[in-house]
Write a structure and sequence with these properties.
Radius of gyration: 20 Å
Structural class: alpha/beta
Strand content: 15-25%
Number of strands: 14
Bound molecules: pyridoxal-5'-phosphate
CATH class of the largest domain: Alpha Beta
Distance between the termini: 48 Å
């Protein structure tokens, strides 16, 4: 097994905890344990009594029951809880694929979605999100990428880093295609429920049939990354069992306090998501103004969901721009090169409350 450095995470490791303004975060504004517990009468007292022994490896039944609320046909036994979405991606790739399998992966994207498959020994073909199509994936291109040994498709929508939300027609066609060709569809839905218009929300892939595995997490839409609670939902018993048995070699079970807090959060997830969508919409108005003020410097496709976009810097080199900006102004943007993008894009985060101050700092950097 060989895993190269995770470029995005290494970039964050350099700057995340020593930079004043993070203007490229993928998660939404977090909150304290105390604030989370106020969402529910009696939760603070119950939290004090959480038992600190080992927990059930699949995740506590109460938490899995709450997670089922995200789906239409999932039962608690279809949910496997992990330490963040990161652990679930890792275990899924080893549980579902073998050396020599061909896997088609939405690109550019969160590095582990392709890299872990490669480390298993899979041949990975990128399914390219094209800017000229508003970062949409093209179903015809997917058909051309198919080989006799293709075993799976990996998608992420709403998408990191472009903010692309697949249309319902394409999503249904993709699921049908996967079923007809006996492919596993791994659907990274960690930004689901952050659609700015709820009628744009896609069904979860796991509700479309046994071919699909949906990935979720508390980190993004709900703004609770510190809980490190992620999960997969699937009716596919082979993949579920394989992942459960690999988990015995990684974390065995989850943190008991985090499971309790995640259970409370998932019960009130609509409130948490609405708070964060409100922040995103407010921030989008500020970004619209920034881009109107600098039409020769920035262009972008305004997202319809999620907490980020992938604008293009129209002058200069994006790596030097980001480097200068963080060193001289204390504002962190993420150059597209961490996604192997070569077209001068950068990731812009929309989910943090201090975005107005970060943009003001960026404006004075541009003025100077
Ligand atoms: C698309 C996508 N999937 C998975 C993850 C991993 O989430 P977590 O860090 O909460 O495990 C991320 C985090 O940025 C992501 O953007």
């Amino acid at each position: 097994m060989h895993l190269p450095p995770f470029k995005l995470e290494r970039y964050f490791a350099k700057y995340e905890f020593n930079t004043e303004f993070l203007l490229c975060s993928s998660d939404c504004e977090a909150m304290s344990i105390a604030d989370l517990l106020t969402l529910e009468e009696g939760a603070a007292e119950k939290f004090q009594k959480v038992w600190l022994g080992y927990t059930e490896s699949q995740g506590s039944p109460a938490l899995r029951n709450e997670i089922c609320g995200l789906y239409t046909s999932m039962q608690p036994e279809d949910i496997l809880v992990h330490t963040g979405a990161g652990e679930a991606i890792y275990l899924f790739m080893y549980a579902a694929f073998q050396q020599g399998d061909h896997v088609i992966v939405h690109s550019p994207g969160y590095q582990s979605l392709a890299e872990v498959a490669r480390s298993v020994g899979c041949d990975v073909s990128p399914w390219l999100a094209r800017e000229e199509n508003g970062w949409a994936l093209d179903m015809n291109e997917l058909r051309h990428l198919m080989r006799s040994n293709t075993k799976g498709i990996v998608i992420n929508t709403p998408h990191n880093p472009t903010g692309y939300l697949m249309s319902r027609v394409d999503f249904e066609e993709l699921n049908k295609f996967a079923q007809e060709n006996n492919l596993i569809l791994f659907s990274d839905e960690v930004y689901r429920e952050s659609e700015y218009d709820p009628t744009d929300r896609l069904p979860a892939a796991c509700d479309m049939g046994e071919h699909a595995v949906s990935l979720g997490v508390t980190s993004k839409t709900y703004g609770l990354a510190g809980l490190r609670i992620g999960w997969i939902a699937t009716k596919n018993k082979r993949i579920y069992q394989n992942m459960a048995s690999l988990k015995d070699y990684t974390t065995i079970c989850n943190s008991a306090p985090s499971e309790f807090l995640a259970e409370v959060a998932m019960r009130h997830r609509e409130k948490l998501a609405n708070r964060n969508i409100y922040i995103i919409k407010h921030n989008l108005a500020i970004i619209d103004e920034l881009f109107i003020n600098h039409p020769s410097l920035f262009s972008w496709h305004r997202p319809k969901a999620g907490s980020m976009g992938f604008p293009k810097l129209l002058q200069g080199n994006v790596e030097s721009f980001c480097d200068d900006l963080v060193k001289k102004a204390g504002v962190l943007l993420l150059p597209g090169s961490v996604y192997d993008d070569t077209h001068n894009h950068f990731r812009l985060g929309l989910g943090r409350m201090n975005l107005p101050q970060a943009v003001a700092r960026l404006e004075s950097f541009l003025a100077s």
